[in-house]
Amino acid sequence: MAKSDRINDHILQELSRDGRISNLELAERVGLSPSACLRRVQELERSGVISGYRAVLDRQAMGVGFVTYIGVGLGDHSKGAQLDFEQAMARAPEVVECHNITGTIEYLLRVECADLPSYKRFHADILGTAPHVTSITTYVVMESPKDLRA
After folding, report:
1. Are 140 and 68 within 8 A, CB to CB?
2. What's the pTM value of the predicted model, to 2 decimals?
């Protein structure tokens, strides 16, 4: 595992903001020579601290105008029931995140659709027919003043 220090933290912060930054620019921002900076980035990658790079997508430009978080409760709490539900959600392109959580429900989903009618179809045709689902609570995202996901 790569050591955590002030410089590595700064490198990670800069790469989180812009994964396409040149090594030369990154080195300048963190106060290292380009070769030392490159070695550190490669070590962060090799050790798994940096697991990949992604494009930040403009959901509005892609036609996604309706984002929800959905709490889902299952009636059967067995491993098989969880696997059945997870497989159903993996097949649904609208589900961009699926988290198994603790508390009064089993899952928290992030669902992205074009609009309310397309969400209603997802709710009825996909989520409403998913195995073992006994409760669905939808939270509509109105605005995201802070969102650091890539």
Report:
1. yes
2. 0.80
Segment (H or E) for 133: strand 133-140
Distant-in-sequence, close-in-space partners of 118: CB < 8 Å, separation ≥ 6: 66, 94
Residues 102 and 135 in one domain: yes
List the one residue out of 98, 109, 99, 112 whose CA is nearest residue 67: 112
Between CA 25 and CA 3 the distance in angstroms is: 22
pLDDT digits (tens, 9 = 90+) for 4-33: 899 999 999 999 999 999 999 999 999 999
Is 42 in the same domain as 70? Answer: no
Query: Domain with 117 in it: what CATH number?
Result: 3.30.70.920
Q: Are strands 66-74 and 95-100 parallel, antiparallel or unpaired?
A: unpaired
Which of 96, 85, 98 lies closest to 126, judged by CA? 85
